[in-house]
Amino acid sequence: RAKSAGGNRFELADPEADARTITRHGLTTALPTALDRGEFFIEYQPLVHLGDGSVRGAEALVRWLHPQHGVLGPDRFIPLAEHTGLIVPLGRWVLEQSVRQAREWREICGADRGSAPLRINVNLSPCQLTDPGLVRDTVDILERAGVEPDALCLEVTESALIGADDDLLKPLRRLADMGVDIALDDFGTGYSNLANLRRLPVSILKLDRSFTRGMQQFPADPVDLKIVEGIVSLAHSLDLAVTVEGVETGAQAEQLKVLGCDTAQGWYYARPGPPERLHELTLVDATG
Ligand code: C2E
Ligand code: MG
Ligand code: MG
Ligand code: MG
Asked: Where would one find the signal peptide in this protein (predicted)?
């Protein structure tokens, strides 16, 4: 570490920070070719109906199989892809793969599930909202795969929509009008004005993991319980469904069900995994 001993001095590089910069730089340069080389892949994590425990959908989560560094999680490269603009083609690729996978999944696990068709959730970066091709590409992808818009849910983080003006909301509104669900991801972390929710074309709130974490201990933190209860009742009064993320124990699941949450996602049910695993989980669940 450099000493701030006054006078002219050289900053000594922090070796760790240096390694981080090199990797960051290395990853950034490797990103564009990674897409062409097919180094990205998608894992799917089931979304479970809290009422009856059945699999109702899955969230698509992208990973990068880096030739040197092995599997990298999205937190390592999504911010870089956003910074370089690669997120637009990458996001389109994720959407296309996920929608095709949804088609196959529905074929394998029964397209006719009455009022509970299997649905696919795909994360959308704020940069994709300003991509003028978003609506057209989404429609194309759905049509080519033969998947109805109401089988798709796009997840946008609460922070991406805070203070969003009408121009930013327009593409989401068009997609919502077509039947695509829009979910507000990581809800509760963005300090958004709750009254603001009415303005947004969203139909689902995804409660951030920080809320479920407070329910891990037993008995759960009573303040956390009150907060979640309040959010759920507000959401329902606005006709929004509530999904909870990060459910890791049966006790949490039970608690969240009592609080009226609709859908849950987390390691208690399944970790993100390959599509075959998702098919298995869905089929097991359908046959009891
Ligand atoms: P997210 O959309 O909030 O996704 C949920 C994250 O929580 C995932 O992390 C998932 O693996 C993790 N998770 C699920 N259940 C549990 C649990 O019970 N306990 C714990 N501790 N974690 C759980 P992951 O896969 O690392 O993804 C991180 C974030 O990266 C996502 O957060 C999302 O914001 C972003 N992301 C992932 N895929 C994409 C993508 O295709 N496009 C964009 N733009 N962002 C993506
Ligand atoms: Mg998400
Ligand atoms: Mg989330
Ligand atoms: Mg989250």
From this structure: none
